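Thread: quick sanity check before group meeting

JM: Hey all, I'm pulling together slides for Thursday and realized we never actually wrote out the predicted structure for the chain we discussed last week. Dropping the sequence here so it's in one place. If anyone has concerns about the input, flag it before I start.
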Amino acid sequence: MKKLKVAILGSGNIGTDLLVKAQRSPYLECTMFIGRKLASPGMAKANSLGVRISDQSIEAITNNPDCCDLVFDATSAVDHLRHAPILEQLGKLVIDLTPAKVGQICVPAVNLTSCLQYTNVNMVTCGGQASTPLAFAIGKTQQNIDYIEVISSIASRSAGPATRANLDEYISTTESAIRNFSGCRRAKAILNLNPAQPCINMQTTVFAKVENPDLEKLNPVLQEVISTVQKYVPGYQLIVPPTIENGRIVLMVRVLGVGDYLPSYAGNLDIINCAAIAMAEEYAKNNN
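JM (edit): ok, ran it. Output follows.
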């Protein structure tokens, strides 16, 4: 099978972890790792793996348009708004790991195959990847969903500069995904950065206010969705099964990273990267 040539735009922790995952994939070949500082740890890692590096940001691709077929954008929401039209003009497939909300929202456990028709897909957010499959299961089995609230807690050390700068976009994009895939009337997303030492694992809690909660219908659909997520995110675990509390459905998942480049507590970064790799591999399979 011919491998899909990919470039990674963004040499921070997300981009570097993504690089290690791409290198392991039988469907992908990372042909360029792009940042802004050649002396960064990410650049050093890429160089040690024999991957071509550049500090020219988006210009590395515009100056070498044949270097790749697909671009992972792991920069920031503001940067992706600038990158998206350039990459579209170059005819590149784009997987956006920022909360820019330019392309089609993609949560592989929910809409992997249907996203193949789009050339720019948005991986929502870490909290969105963790919670949207749960909201989708709720939407498929419950009637008259008035409100869904999603609270993700992550280790402060796993939240980099781009995450902190994009908090408004994080909230807006996550809430859009929840509404879109559950059909709820209202949604709210909250992100807690916990400075505790040792670092906490990522946990996401979903509260759903529905009319006449039905756990008997929810449980089998939920288990099916969770099993689908676990195919590409092995550390995705249901730790609080659906419970009815004060008329609301409550459930919680924990995400442990696989430790490719980042520590296992950084499940928030691992889940969005695993989702991005799953989408890229689907593009690769579809192109062969």
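AS: nice. The chain is about 40% helix and 25% strand. The longest helix spans residues 267-287.
JM: adding both to the slides.
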